Structure formats: structure tokens, C-alpha cells
TrEMBL record:
Coiled coil, from the record: none
Enzyme Commission number(s) of this protein: 2.1.1.14
Lineage: superkingdom: Bacteria
Any Gene Ontology biological process: methylation
InterPro entries: Met_Synth_C/arc (IPR002629), Met_Synthase_cat (IPR016456), UROD/MetE-like_sf (IPR038071)
Protein name, entry field: 5-methyltetrahydropteroyltriglutamate--homocysteine methyltransferase
Organism: Moraxella catarrhalis (Branhamella catarrhalis)
Cofactor field: Zn(2+)
Keywords: Metal-binding, Methyltransferase, Transferase, Zinc
Sequence intervals crossing the membrane: none
Taxonomic lineage of the native organism: Bacteria, Pseudomonadati, Pseudomonadota, Gammaproteobacteria, Moraxellales
Length: 344
């Protein structure tokens, strides 16, 4: 869909300015309220867009400036979930967290991100990508005292996500991405109903659709978990065959500094692949040559017109300086390989 060879993008989030929320932290509190908060979020979105544009990123996003968290913020806008009634559950089999409860039928009384998407659309002519949480990752951050079935709740969320996605498409979003880090953990469920609920979420969409599957932000619980995975991370092997057969257009995955064997990309042959060439779990800024090297390796398994250079995951927990450096490295690294491919 992109006319540019190797179009660059980010997996989603970018750091927030310190005047909006405490930086380098997840679930950071807003520093404004009401109308002032609305204005401040929009200003931050414009700053984030300017930084992406300045770095030469081809497919831009809102940097997730208007949300506290990639899953929670969406759920906050739904009926049927009580944020005051909290229970402790284990998230992605990795760490315990106090989470809200599903107390009745879930529904979306009004759109969640559509105004933000219209605002972004009005400020750029570039392709825009919008991230939503995937159904399986949503259910994994909740205590369900109503449906008492992970699968049932996932189907309900898929229906709701589809409503939101259709409105985002109408607002001019070019790529809608569903974040499903849970796909790297619950393999049986992915095959039984995970991919099916994801396909329900994209039903009827004409824009491009993506799924982002990763090993998480660079927070301690995730880096500790990664230590237990051994030398070769083959988790993608479980979900890729099913995704290869699905209607999803793009698969976003983690490749930089990860122990994912690059040849696993072969399992999604035919799909467009957003290749993570920026490690978000370290403050060390990649050199353009390191980025180029990862992209060259990926090119052995994905055709050049289907390779979209990206980041491993969101950069919300990083400092703005580091994130800016990484955006530049991504852009410059992609440019090196683009020149090689075009022979100039
Ligand atoms: Zn991620």
C-alpha cells in the first residue's frame, strides 16, 4: 500500500512530554484535568507527530499521547467494567497486578479514539496507523466475574473493537493495528479462538490491518521473563502458521537484539512484515548500520516490498532523547538498505 520502499513506522507509543505526565513510567498520572487536559493531550500529539516527521518516519501515529496505557485506557471507556472493584490476577503468566472487574455485559457507549484520530488526520498527509488492544490481551488484564469464560469475553471485545475500528477507518486511518502480546504466551488459546476473535475485530474493514506481537516493554517483569526463555525464542512459531492463513495484512514483530530466529518469518510468507529493528528495552541507541543489518537479515525471508522497518515495541517508558535518537537510527538504517535495493 505504501508507495515508498521500506516505509518506516513505530510499534505505537512514544514518550510523553514531562509537562503532560511523569515521564519514563507506565500508567503515569496526568498533570492536568478537564479541558486543560484535553488541550494538553492534543498539544502532545502534535509534538509527537512533529518528532516522527522530523525523524523521517513514513507511517506516523499519535504516539499514544492521549492514553495512559495501551490496554487500560480503551477499557475505561466501556460499560460493564468496574474500575473500583479490583482483583489481583496474573498478567501474561508473568506478574501479579490489581485489575478492574467485568461486572456485567460489556459495551462501548461511544467511540474511544475517533476524535483523536480525526485530529491526527487533519494534521498530516502521511499514512497513519492507529493501535488498539487485541481481544486476548484485553481479557488478560481483567478479572471476569460476569462471563466467567475467557473465550466468551474475547468475542464480546472483538465485536466492540470492530465498531471502533470501522469508525477509525472512516476517520481516515490507513492501518489499524491490534496489539496482542498475549499471543506470545497462550498458544492453545491463540489457535483455538485467539486468531478467530482477531478476525472478528477486523471484519468488513477495507483499510490495512496489523497485529503486533512482542515480548513487551523493557520493564523488569518482561526482562526477567526473557531471561527464562533460553537462547532461541521460538514463541512466534506457535502463532504464525495460523496468522499466515488469517485475513490480517501485516504482522509486527520483534527482531532487534531479540533471540528470535529470523527464519521464523518464513512462516508468515505472503504477509507484510513490520520488522522491529529498534530495541526498546535498552537506552543504547542503535547505529544506522545495526538497523540496516537487521533489515538485511529479514530480507532473506520477506520480499522487499513487504518489509516495513519498525520498532520492537512501544517506546513510552524511554526518555525523549533516547526515543528521538532511536527514531533517527531507524530512519537512517532503512535509508541505507533502500539505497542498496535501488542500486544507488
Ligand atoms: Zn509490543
Amino acid at each position: 500500500m505504501s508507495k515508498i520502499l521500506l516505509p518506516t513506522s513505530t510499534a505505537g507509543s512514544l514518550p510523553k512530554p514531562s509537562w503532560l505526565a511523569e515521564p519514563e513510567k507506565l500508567w503515569s498520572e496526568w498533570k492536568f484535568e478537564g479541558d486543560e487536559l484535553l488541550q494538553a493531550k492534543q498539544d502532545a500529539l502534535l509534538v509527537s507527530l512533529a518528532e516522527q516527521t522530523h525523524a523521517g518516519i513514513d507511517i506516523v501515529s499519535d504516539g499514544e499521547q492521549t492514553r495512559q496505557h495501551f490496554v487500560t485506557t480503551f477499557i475505561e471507556h466501556l460499560d460493564g467494567v468496574d474500575f473500583n472493584q479490583r482483583e489481583t490476577v496474573r498478567i501474561r503468566n508473568r506478574y501479579d497486578a490489581s485489575v478492574p472487574s467485568v461486572v456485567g455485559e460489556v459495551s462501548r457507549p461511544k467511540s474511544v479514539f475517533v476524535d483523536d484520530a480525526k485530529f491526527l488526520r487533519a494534521h498530516t498527509d502521511k499514512l497513519i496507523k492507529w493501535a488498539l488492544p487485541g481481544p486476548m490481551t484485553m481479557i488478560d488484564t481483567l478479572y471476569d466475574g460476569h462471563y466467567k469464560s475467557r473465550e466468551k469475553l474475547a468475542w464480546e471485545f472483538a465485536k466492540i473493537l470492530n465498531e471502533e475500528a470501522r469508525e477509525l477507518e472512516a476517520a481516515g486511518v490507513d492501518i489499524i493495528q491490534f496489539d496482542e502480546p498475549a499471543f506470545n504466551v497462550f498458544f492453545d488459546e491463540v489457535n483455538d479462538w485467539g486468531v478467530a476473535t482477531l478476525e472478528r475485530a477486523i471484519e468488513g474493514l477495507k483499510c490495512q490491518t496489523a497485529v503486533h506481537i512482542c515480548y513487551g516493554y523493557g520493564i523488569k517483569a518482561n526482562t526477567d521473563w526473557k531471561q527464562t526463555l533460553g537462547n532461541e525464542w521460538r514463541q512466534y512459531e506457535e502463532s504464525f502458521p495460523k496468522l499466515q492463513q488469517s485475513k490480517i495484512d501485516i504482522v509486527s514483530l520483534e527482531c532487534q537484539n531479540s533471540h528470535v530466529p529470523m527464519d521464523l518469518i518464513e512462516l508468515i510468507r505472503g504477509k507484510t512484515v513490520m520488522v522491529g529493528a529498534i530495541d526498546v528495552a535498552t537506552n543504547q541507541i542503535e547505529t544506522p548500520e545495526q538497523v540496516a543489518d537487521t533489515l538485511r537479515k529479514a530480507l532473506q525471508f520477506v520480499d522487499a516490498d513487504k518489509l516495513y522497518p519498525s520498532t520492537n515495541c512501544g517506546m513510552a517508558p524511554l526518555s525523549r532523547t533516547v526515543a528521538r535518537g532511536k527514531l533517527n537510527a531507524l530512519s537512517e538504517g532503512a535509508a541505507i538498505v533502500r539505497r542498496e535495493l535501488l542500486g544507488k
